[in-house]
Every structure is written in C-alpha cells, then in structure tokens.
Write a structure and sequence with these properties.
Elements lengths: L4 E8 L4 H14 L4 E6 L8 E8 L14 E4 L2 H6 L9 E5 L6 H4 L8 H11 L3 E4 L1 H8 L5 H12 L6 H11 L2 H17 L4
Helix pairs in contact: 1-7, 5-6, 5-8, 6-8
C-alpha cells in the first residue's frame, strides 16, 4: 500500500456519505493512521451531489485534484460517472448499481443513462471496478438506508485503504445509534461478502 491513499466518496444527499466518511476517519485515527477529511455538501437537501474526500497517510491537504483519486466510492451510478474526472486508469471504483434518478428524469425532462452502459464506461476509464446493488443488500440487512454501510464493507474487503475491517466495524458501533448498530454491522458484512472475488 502507498504511503498516501486518496479516497473520493460521492453520493446523493440523504444517502449517508458524510457518516461513511466520518466512520472511516475515526477508524483510521484509532489505528494511528494520519487522516485528512473534507466535504462538499452542494445541494444535499434537494437530492444534489454530496462529495467527501478522505486522505490517509502523511499528506498535507485533504484536496484531491482531478486524476488523483486512488479509490472512488460511489453510492449511485450516475454520480460515479460525474466523478470520473477524479479517477485515472488505475483507480479502484466501488459503486452501487442501484440508480436514484434525479427529479428531472423522474418528471420526464431528462434521461437517466442505462445502468449497463454506465458500468461499461466506468470500466473503460478506470482500473478495477467493484459493483453491487447496495440498496438491495441494505434492505436485506433490515434498512435500505444502510447502503453506506454496505459500501464501507466492500471498501474494507478490497483492502485499498490502510484501515482494517475490525476498526471500521468498531467505528460504526461508536458512530451510529444503538438501535441501528446491529443492522449497520449486518449491512457492512453483506457488502464485505459481495465484494469478494470482484
């Protein structure tokens, strides 16, 4: 693993991006790994893009420029496409395949791209791609809103960031309400399993 690992997380407002970034940052700190984090909220409350940058290791900034991301973690396939400028041919992409079409597409004023074509384009532009229906796995865990935990599980399975799965699990327990902890941990485990062999 490189000394510095740059992770970009993209999602639509309300999908739990910021919690996922906070969990990762706290897990890294618990392991003595230096970490920098920044967030761009955008129009999060209206279903707009939310982006987090988490930089592990001895970096001087949390800014991740175009083509600098080592890992792109995305909660929504069209947002993965929008964030591809952050990636390069060797970037690992972990993405949910469950679409969340924007309002314009929902009312017929826009067109949502075909999911298979989205994945093909992502594969052409990046390195390894780990894709799963995070929303369905979260629902299987007991809460469709736990897809952020599913994707954290997938991220842990790839061993692409310098934070072990056990540390992430402990940070999930520490950062979520007790009533949701069991479901969140189950969602994490399902994502961890789904990423195997991808």
């Amino acid at each position: 693993m490189k000394d510095v690992v740059r992770l970009v997380i993209v999602a639509v407002g309300g999908q739990g991006n910021l919690l996922a970034a906070r969990v990762l940052a706290e897990a890294a700190l618990s392991q003595g790994v230096p970490v920098h984090m920044s967030e761009i909220h955008g129009m999060a409350q209206r279903g707009g893009v939310v982006e987090s940058a988490v930089v592990f290791g001895p970096a001087e900034s949390s800014i991740i420029s175009d083509a600098e991301a080592d890992v792109l973690l995305s909660f929504e396939p069209a947002e993965t496409l929008r964030a591809l400028n952050r990636a390069r041919p060797g970037t690992l992409v972990i993405t949910s395949t469950s679409p969340l079409p924007p309002f314009t597409a929902a009312i017929g004023k826009g067109v949502y791209p075909e999911p298979d074509k989205v994945l093909d384009l992502i594969r052409q532009k990046t390195g390894r791609v780990v894709a799963m229906d995070a929303k369905a796995l979260a629902a299987k865990a007991g809460n469709p809103l736990a897809q952020n935990m599913v994707l954290l599980g997938a991220l842990a399975r790839t061993q692409s960031v310098p934070v072990p799965a056990d540390a992430i699990r402990k940070a999930i327990e520490a950062n979520t309400k007790a009533a949701f902890a069991e479901i969140n941990l189950k969602a994490f485990d399902l994502g961890h399993e789904a990423a195997a062999g991808q």
